[in-house]
């Protein structure tokens, strides 16, 4: 059984939902899965100013936070993060940067990685965010697995071959129907992870 770590950062719940869909599909595909939230760095007074952010923060307090031990444990990873000016949020960057010790020991080499993202509009930097995250993964020596166009569900979800992305309206609702595409990406990640981990 391969081990898959799903790491997400979510301020109002979109990427948490993507992570949950990915978790369900990965388990269906036979993986042992850990879902871990990336630690919130924003001060609570800032969170309190946004009711949706505060509600999600409170609702997910019991979700375990991601650690380097989770990175070391997993054979493969899925990251789900929102875009911040075409790049990953500071919270995700801090978590990734904390993995320097594992990187120096070669413990991230040949880990399989896939990524998903969200933004408030259809061209809000989703592809750039995913590709910027993958840049770090190349430094890790990881194996990148995007969904590509390996299933028609990718087209139905907006056609992002690098990693499923979704836009979110002003009320926090997902615009595109991406559930099936997320699940396909997760299953594909597990499938490739099995091939890599068995060698």
TrEMBL record:
Q: Name one Pfam family in it.
A: FMN_red
By its UniProt entry, which InterPro entries does this protein fall under? Answer: Flavodoxin/NO_synth, Flavoprotein-like_sf, Flavoprotein_WrbA-like, FMN_Rdtase-like_dom
**Which superkingdom does the taxonomy of this entry point to?**
Bacteria
Among the entry's GO cellular component annotations, what is one?
A: membrane
- Which SUPFAM superfamilies does the annotation name? Flavoproteins
Q: Which GO terms describe its molecular function?
A: FMN binding; NAD(P)H dehydrogenase (quinone) activity
Q: Which residues form the Flavodoxin-like domain?
A: 4-190
What protein family is recorded?
Belongs to the WrbA family.
Record's PANTHER family? FLAVODOXIN-RELATED PROTEIN WRBA-RELATED (PTHR30546), FLAVOPROTEIN-LIKE PROTEIN YCP4-RELATED (PTHR30546:SF23)
Q: What is this protein called?
A: NAD(P)H dehydrogenase (Quinone)
Q: Which organism is it from?
A: Sediminibacillus albus
Write the lineage as a comma-separated list.
Answer: Bacteria, Bacillati, Bacillota, Bacilli, Bacillales
């Amino acid at each position: 059984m391969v081990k898959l770590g799903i790491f997400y950062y979510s301020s109002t719940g979109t990427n948490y939902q993507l992570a949950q869909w990915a978790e369900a599909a990965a388990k269906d595909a036979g993986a042992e899965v850990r879902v871990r939230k990336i630690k919130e760095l924003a001060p609570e007074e800032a969170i309190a100013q946004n009711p949706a952010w505060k509600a999600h923060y409170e609702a997910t307090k019991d979700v375990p936070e991601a650690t380097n031990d989770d990175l070391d444990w997993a054979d493969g990873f899925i990251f789900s993060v929102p875009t911040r000016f075409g790049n990953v949020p500071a919270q995700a960057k801090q978590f990734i940067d904390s993995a320097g010790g594992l990187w120096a020991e070669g413990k991230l080499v040949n880990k399989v990685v896939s990524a998903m993202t969200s933004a408030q509009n259809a061209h809000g930097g989703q592809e750039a965010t995913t590709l910027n995250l993958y840049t770090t993964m190349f430094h890790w020596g990881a194996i990148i697995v995007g969904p590509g166009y390996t299933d028609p569900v990718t087209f139905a979800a907006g056609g992002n071959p690098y990693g499923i992305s979704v836009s979110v309206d002003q009320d926090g609702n997902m615009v595109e129907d991406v559930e099936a595409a997320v699940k396909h990406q997760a299953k594909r990640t597990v499938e490739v992870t099995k091939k890599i981990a068995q060698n």
